[in-house]
Amino acid sequence: MIKLTPVERAALRAEAHGLKPVVMIGEAGLTPAVIKEIELGLDAHGLIKVRVFGDDREARAGMYDTICAQLEAAPVQHIGKLLVLYRPKKEVEKERSAKTGKGMRMVTIVKPSASGTKKPSVNKVLLKGNERVTEGGTIKRAKVRQKSTKKSSLA
User: Fold this and answer.
1) What is the pTM of this model?
2) pLDDT at 125
3) Which of 62, 57, 84 has its CA nearest to residue 73?
4) CATH fold for domain 6-86
5) Are 48 and 84 in contact (CB under 8 A)?
6) 109 has which bridge partners?
7) Per-domain residue ranges for the chain?
């Protein structure tokens, strides 16, 4: 379980104030499916609210402790039937090729053979941001936008 300082906890409570509950725990209680949904919510958002439908305060407190222990999350706040949980988001870096720059993308073009009996040709092409591939497999650039003669004369 993650330990938070009182200052961190107060900041997270303030941040969670405007959030809506991501997961609702019903009468079935804390099932593996519910735990999985809470884990997905924590991975996606980091800070989530969970609503527990049940009147037993001790049961809610027990669920809160169980969730925090199983998912290695920090308990932020338990107020009424709402539980606020925090776990830092995992940094996931997207793999990018060193060749592709900003606005560049790799596209695979598959062209069937002219006779239809041979293997299709497969080409990997690097497209710039203003280029597209047509149905025939050719690369087309976007046309230069026409400028208004009226607007340029007014400026």
Assistant:
1) 0.59
2) 86
3) 84
4) Translation Initiation Factor IF3 (3.30.110)
5) yes
6) 123
7) 6-86, 99-141
